[in-house]
Amino acid sequence: MVLAGLVSYLFAYSVTQHTNILQITNERNLNCGAGDNKVTNGYVNLKNGNLFFSLFQGKGEAKHNGLVIQFEGGPGATAFDYPFIGAGPCQLVPDGEPSLSGLVPAPYPWTDYANLLVVDYPIGAGWSYNTSEQNPGSTSDTAAEEFDDSLQIILKQWPKFQDQPIILSTLSYGGTTGSHIASTVLKRNNEAKENFWSARIIKQFDQLLFGNPFADAMSEIYAQWDVVCNTEPKAYNETICSHFRDDLTKCLDKLRYLDEIENTGELRLDAMKYCVQTPEIRFELPIYNRYHKSKPKCFPSNLCFWWMGMLTDLMNSQEMREWLGVTNHIERWWYAGPAMFRFINNADHMQNAYKLLQPVLESGTRLLVYSGLEDTMVPYIGTESWMNRLPNPYLKAFRESETQKVSNDLFRGTVINPGSDLTLIGIDEAGHLVEETHAALTQEMIRVAVQGKNYNPI
Ligand SMILES: *[C@@H]1O[C@H](CO)[C@@H](O)[C@H](O)[C@H]1NC(C)=O
Ligand SMILES: *[C@@H]1O[C@H](CO)[C@@H](O)[C@H](O)[C@H]1NC(C)=O
Fold first, then answer.
1. Which InterPro entries match (predicted)?
2. DSSP letters of 212-229?
């Protein structure tokens, strides 16, 4: 009995020793002719799994400016594309080699103005992993709690970030992911303020920077129909468009039930049957690239972005494994691996996360949304739709603001409610991934964000 008690005590002791700790796997300099850029790689070991990150230190004085945390879409896609397609100091190029020596200086790196934290999030994407005893979240609410736990550990490891502005930057499904994260952080902060014994570091996001955000299934789905079947050039023929149209009413009906009455995994999966098209319909049958309608169609969808194959080769190279300090816990880096299947199997995307932003904006966090106008996967008009309906202190001003045309050195497009804490920007000639075509613009948004403002194009 005594021995058994001791064994279980030791076991419990060793488990607590190995969770909620930060393990640095490697600190390296990234040099592609752009000077030495310090990068710290590591894991945050949590109860439910192990989250991989790289912290790209801001260049020179920029390391004191602020912290930008980048999230990607999916659901379940890693954010590790961003540092290597222009946001980090060194990037891949279409005719280059997928190796560290093949990287070239990025012309407009975010790291000129801020520190950049990139995560293989959620657990199960990229180098993040779980053991068979660990059960990571498979929906964005539970995964947000895991990220909040990680952020607490990161803020304790680097106390300087407690005093710097923190910007939550996302792409695509990151509109849902980011809404959950921002609201979870706020909720836990408020709980900690009520609890005298809490050891929590209370830190709020200064700004949310959402690129082509999927944050409301309903408005994105009817907006998609509008841009692919009701706008010239139409992406599909009459037969396919009328099938979409037939499913649309049923889909929206089911999403409303989920929103207003009852939300279960089974009901979400049922809604998916009417709301989500097959990859063949999305990518093989349209006449153009759904992510950028001025480009030729791409199928399978990993061919839609030139860097996707190169990034996968780079991340899986022995050289990169060593550089990152990744050991043999995990065989292969996937852009969207097990995490994506877990989230899709739970139909996580049948939701309208934008509503979670109300208390976040009320508490003083700014929101800047930008959208490439050539995108038909998460179309601008769907984003404008939920922003026009999100209760918050700036809603009246936002609704009263006209859509203004913009033309300047950084871009041509539109802006609604410029110079405020809630702004929407539409970008001509940009698709789903604005960073790919308008790196100078996104860099400017970051530069201004860490100064405590939303970028104002006017
Ligand atoms: C990770 O957790 C999931 C359950 O969420 C499980 O199915 C899977 O096998 C685990 N992964 C590994 C490598 O054990
Ligand atoms: C529409 O496109 C689908 C898929 O390419 C094809 O099978 C069908 O025959 C087309 N219908 C018409 C009326 O052209």
1. AB_hydrolase_fold (IPR029058), Peptidase_S10 (IPR001563)
2. S----HHHHHHHHHHHHH
